[in-house]
Design brief:
2 domains, 15 helices, 76% helix, 0% strand, mainly alpha
Length: 352
């Protein structure tokens, strides 16, 4: 047993929820962002401006989502070069065979392929042959064996959530908004979760509402402690910056969570806000304005498909209210109350 532990330590193979569920999943979301999401944005700009070259570039970027995710996962796992580069093939196969649930298939299979590749790396004199062969054979073999089932399972869960949200927009709007919003602020990837489950439509709108409540909410709530630098770092960056403060005083999280419990059902019941762009955008909130851009690209796709006549004033109003106005006002109001009763004190939300 000691020899096995020593071998795993030497190979930097660490079996932990943090490495796989936080580091690898977070990296996967970045890989998806740099391929599918950017490709979708470029394609939308190309369609709107008539500049066909952007559509072509966007198509190339989107097509590389599988390899980009797998390589990003390998990078997070600190895979050596031969393993890292071989994961491009593994990611492509897993994403293709995983269908609608491809991102989850890529996450599971790329992790296993990377660890197997790391285990054999530099163990033979013909490393340049052995390491890529093992990584690719293990990865593609598992993709052929597991990816369709993993993808189908993830797609089924996503479809169930979206179906339930359509059926019970009040209850599910609240549940999805609060849950995904909390995931956004925790050191896990809400974007990867939404991508893996393929959350779009009304459920995607609720997820966007929850994420925006956390980001815009914390930006406004902590303004007196952090001024404009902290405002933009959280409002356009990530509310995860507040995790240290949340650990020290969990009650500072309540205003944003309560806000998400309101904005979610308002998005689903009152406005019927749908996020029909890439599923990853549902879990991005206002980070780089990716969430609102996702809604816009969804509008354009719906118009092209004949599912929407045009983008109206109410569409823009709903987006502004759910993403910016309500999160800012409600979190500020809840914050005033919690400061008044002493649950949030001066400096509790200071960054750095």
């Amino acid at each position: 047993m000691e020899k096995v532990r020593a071998f795993l330590k030497r190979k930097n193979i660490v079996f932990s929820a943090h490495r796989y569920g936080v580091e690898a999943m977070g990296a996967m979301a970045l890989g998806l962002f740099c391929s599918l999401l950017i490709g979708t944005i470029l394609n939308t700009i190309g369609t709107q401006t008539g500049y066909a070259a952007l559509n072509t570039i966007g198509g190339y970027a989107s097509a590389m989502s599988g390899p980009a995710m797998a390589i990003a996962i390998g990078y997070a796992l600190q895979a050596p070069p031969l393993v890292l580069f071989s994961l491009a093939t593994v990611g492509h196969a897993s994403n293709q065979l995983g269908g609608a649930g491809g991102p989850l298939a890529v996450l599971v299979i790329a992790i296993l392929a990377a660890e197997f590749g790391k285990a054999v790396a530099k163990e033979t004199r013909v490393d340049i042959l052995v390491t890529p062969l093992v990584t690719i054979l293990v990865g593609v073999g598992l993709a052929a064996w597991w990816a369709p089932a993993i993808g189908a399972a993830a797609a089924s869960v996503g479809h169930f959530i979206m179906w339930a949200t359509e059926l019970q927009p009040l209850v599910m709007g609240t549940l999805v908004s609060v849950t995904v919003g909390i995931a956004l602020t925790l050191p896990i990837s809400s974007a990867a979760i939404c991508a893996a489950l393929g959350l779009t439509g009304l459920a995607g709108g609720a997820a966007l509402a929850g994420c925006s409540a956390q980001m815009v909410g914390f930006a406004v709530l902590s303004f007196r402690d952090n001024n404009w630098g902290g405002f933009f770092a959280q409002g356009l960056g990530t509310s995860m910056l507040q995790m240290g403060n949340i650990v020290r005083n969990p009650r500072v999280w309540l205003p944003a969570i309560l806000t998400s419990a309101i904005t979610g059902p308002v998005a689903t019941v009152v406005f019927g806000l749908q996020q029909n762009g890439p599923a990853i955008a549902s879990g991005m909130g206002t980070c780089g304005l990716v969430g609102p851009i996702g809604v816009y690209t969804g509008w354009i796709s719906d118009i092209a498909a004949g599912n929407k006549a045009a983008i109206g004033a109410m569409d823009w109003l709903a987006l502004a209210v759910i993403v910016v106005v309500l999160p800012a006002i409600l979190t500020w109001a809840f914050g005033l109350y919690f400061r008044k009763i002493g649950w949030i004190r001066e400096g509790d939300l200071r960054l750095g």
